[in-house]
Automatic annotation (TrEMBL):
Keywords: DNA-binding, Transcription, Transcription regulation
Alphabetized InterPro entries for the sequence: ArsR-like_HTH, HTH_ArsR_DNA-bd_dom, HTH_MetalResp_TranReg, WH-like_DNA-bd_sf, WH_DNA-bd_sf
Species for this entry: Lentzea indica
The keyword S-adenosyl-L-methionine is assigned to this record: no
One Pfam family it belongs to: HTH_5
Name of this protein: Helix-turn-helix transcriptional regulator
Gene3D superfamilies per UniProt: Winged helix-like DNA-binding domain superfamily/Winged helix DNA-binding domain
Lineage, opening ranks: Bacteria, Bacillati, Actinomycetota, Actinomycetes, Pseudonocardiales
Span of domain HTH arsR-type: 1-108
Amino acid sequence: MHAFDVLGDPVRRRILELLAAGERAAGDVGVVVQAEFGITQSAVSQHLKVLRSNGFVEVRPEGTRRVYAVAPDPLREIDAWLDHFRKFWEPHLDALATELARGRRERRLQEEADRDRPQL
């Protein structure tokens, strides 16, 4: 399965978002995903299986639980593929950063001018 096929599903994307914050037991993932998407624990398990079989998550046993974590390699591959397209949004982000810095500078200068102004 192609990486974008795996990530094209909103449930699998949400699972990865949950795991991006740190390792989680399958049951903990299931509780959140079931509540948000209204699917069964069995369906959550199938999504975890797809993520695992395509290398997006790693699993380790911890007693009777299965603990999942994000596996970085497939995400690095996606990031490398996206490099071809960064030119379409990075200049816009650079311009935004410049405007934000300009706004901070103007506010700082205004605050300094207000402090230097005599109080009546």
